[in-house]
Amino acid sequence: MSHTAHIRSHRKPRRSASRVAMRAGVAGGVLGTLAVAGTSASSANAAEPVTQTLELPTLTSDLAAQVAQSAEATEQAAANYRLGAERDAAAANAAKQAKADLADAQKKAEARKKAAEAARKKAAEAARKAAAERASRTAERPTLTASASAGSTSTSVSASTGSAAAVISFAKAQVGKAYVLGASGPSAYDCSGLTQAAFKQVGISLPRVSQNQSTAGTQVSLSNLQPGDILYWGGAGSAYHVGIYVGNGMFVGAQNPSTGVVERPLSYDPPSGAVRVL
């Protein structure tokens, strides 16, 4: 035996591996229990409602001014938008109305142009007819003058008998009476009203207007007139005046409102033609 065997060693005895393992297991179990307990506590705390108070920022005077300014800017923008929309609508309506007015003005201008053209043509036609009538009168004037100057017995009043004498007598009796357009006696006449009334005395019914009276009988030459022949001014069928040849180069007619019914020489207003109904 060693002489030191009975002396306890000053070194700590070594721990066996099994004891270390056992202690580690116990420690792990304790820590696991604590972890589970902590988790349970956390879950319990999480289940409970948490009340938290939020503090809103204080509305300072600067912030209030900014809010008011923003609201005012928004309102102004809306007003500007509405004003712009109204202006656009007004402009569209004005453009539409202007287009309609232009179309209407163009139609009226075209109508005026057509009316003016029609009036011009009518005036030109009237001038042409008047010129033709003047030319016809000028051409007939020498013949009429010669006939009036001759004063032959074949055209004298004394040579007229029967119906012609009655027509002439009635026509001369109306000299001095008034001219009234559309009148046919007994106190006033127009040109065709006088001739119609005169021939009615001998039972002859003449048309009422000059145009028709100028074609009522047989056309005769102005160089071969007889008392009682109807004289006309203008074209046959379009005459604008009539009278009655009474012989000796004279005629009786209701001329116009200024002169009334008069007896005049053929040279006073040479007729365009004549018809014979007796």
Provide keyphrases for this structure.
endopeptidase fold (from Nostoc punctiforme); 5 helices; 53% helix; 13% strand; alpha+beta; 8 strands; 6-stranded antiparallel sheet; 278 residues
Q: In a nutshell, what does this entry contain?
A:
The chain has 278 residues and is of the alpha+beta class.
Structure description:
- With 278 residues, the chain is α+β, with helices and mostly antiparallel strands.
- The chain has a domain at 130-276: endopeptidase domain like (from Nostoc punctiforme) (endopeptidase fold (from Nostoc punctiforme)), CATH 3.90.1720.
- Helix content is 53%, strand content 13%.
- The protein has helices at residues 17-47, 61-150, 163-173, 191-200, 210-213; strands at 178-179, 188-189, 218-220, 230-233, 241-247, 250-256, 260-265, 273-276.
- A six-stranded antiparallel beta sheet has the order 3-8-4-5-6-7.
- The N and C termini lie far apart (207 Å).
- The relative contact order is 0.09.
Low-confidence parts = 40-47, 137-160
- The helix-and-strand class reads alpha+beta
CATH-defined fold name of the domain at 130-276: endopeptidase fold (from Nostoc punctiforme)
- How many angstroms separate the termini? 207 Å
Gyration radius, rounded: 67 Å
CATH class designation of the domain at 130-276: Alpha Beta
Tally of separate helices? 5
Number of strands: 8
CATH superfamily of the domain at 130-276: endopeptidase domain like (from Nostoc punctiforme)
| Biggest sheet: strand arrangement | 3-8-4-5-6-7
Task: Identify the CATH architecture of the domain at 130-276.
Answer: Alpha-Beta Complex
Q: How would you spell out the order of helices and strands?
A: HHHEEHHEEEEEE
Shape: rod-shaped
